[in-house]
Design goal:
The structure is a single chain. The protein is α/β, with parallel strands linked by helices. It has one domain (about 1-284): Alpha/Beta hydrolase fold, catalytic domain (Rossmann fold, 3-Layer(aba) Sandwich), CATH 3.40.50. About 35% of the residues lie in helices and about 20% in strands. It contains eight helices and ten strands. Strands 1-2-4-3-5-6-9-10 form an eight-stranded mixed beta sheet, sandwiched between helices. A two-stranded antiparallel ribbon has the order 7-8. Helix 1 packs across helix 8, helix 3 (about 110-120) crosses helix 6 (about 195-210) and helix 4 packs across helix 6.
Length: about 280
């Protein structure tokens, strides 16, 4: 039995952001909070929900501003701090609702960049997190055509809300044809990014790399070797810069970007669950 609920919470500027949660019957072992990627939303992680709920985990997911069921111009931010402070509010909501439960934080793609930035900006938040998982982190080179990136940088100062299609190839998301067909029909999904989002993203990635040696929380990075959306090399560089000893990186040969929906998703989720269990044993 899965208990599902939905709600809203105030992000920065009092923007009413959407979130949802899934709970098992009985005692909750731990919470997994999920931050989706660019153009995504919190509905995309059903395989994670179905895999972890029987193991007594509860799952929380939010829709970032400008994404999914949350308001805001699609794919646009004024400052990266909006993402950072929204995530802070989201985690505070979870801690208020589940004060006794360990919390793990998972960021997917752009969501992993948001998570990295949050943890490094708020080192005191480490005490409230039992671990961080980066699923196909979009840190470093991404599969956006170069001319679109250049145009975004040029327009960021004069027309920051100018929005382009990212040009990312949908076929690069997963090797599962049925999932690709579902993605194409997903009305909540979008492929937009503003000029300001692009420049804020690159500035944030540079800041994260510079501060990576300060990382102080257990870290798991999962990446597909054939990911053309977020190239694996960026996550490898971040991993090597992190000096904290409790870290692990797994690269799946031939796997694409949406690891939770790729052909080998069961292997990926088994590795995720094993890592979570290991870090719950450390707590106990």
């Amino acid at each position: 039995m899965i208990y599902h609920s939905e709600g809203i919470f105030p992000g920065i500027g009092n923007l009413k952001l959407y979130y949802q949660s899934w709970f098992p019957e009985g005692k909750v072992k731990a919470i997994l909070a999920i931050v989706h990627g660019l153009g995504g939303h919190s509905d995309k992680y059903n395989n994670i929900v179905q895999h972890l709920i029987p193991k007594q985990y509860a799952i929380y997911g939010l829709d970032l501003r400008g994404h999914g069921r949350s308001p805001g111009r699609r794919g646009h931010i004024i400052s990266w701090s909006e993402f950072r402070e929204d995530l802070k509010a989201f985690l505070q909501l979870i801690q208020t609702q589940q004060p006794q439960s360990p919390i793990f934080l998972l960021g997917h793609s752009l969501g992993a960049v948001i998570v990295f930035d949050y943890v490094l900006h708020y080192p005191q938040a480490v005490s409230a997190l039992n671990g961080v998982i980066a699923l196909a982190p979009a840190i470093g080179k991404v599969g956006v055509p170069k001319f679109r990136l250049l145009l975004g940088k040029l327009l960021s100062q004069v027309w920051p809300s100018f929005t382009l299609n990212t040009g990312l190839d949908l076929a690069a998301a997963t090797r599962d044809e049925k999932i690709l067909a579902a993605y194409a029909q997903d009305s909540l999904r979008h492929t937009l990014a503003s000029a300001r989002l692009a420049t804020e993203y690159f500035a944030t990635v540079a800041w994260i790399y510079h501060h990576a040696p300060e990382w102080q929380v257990p870290l798991l990075i999962l990446h597909g070797s054939a990911d053309r959306v977020a190239l694996p090399a960026g996550g490898e560089i971040f991993y090597q810069l992190v000096s904290y000893p409790d870290k692990q990186r797994i690269e799946y040969p031939g796997a694409y970007h949406e690891l939770q929906d790729d052909l080998n998703y069961q292997e990926v989720l088994a590795d995720l669950a094993q890592w979570l269990e290991k870090h719950l044993l450390v707590i106990s």
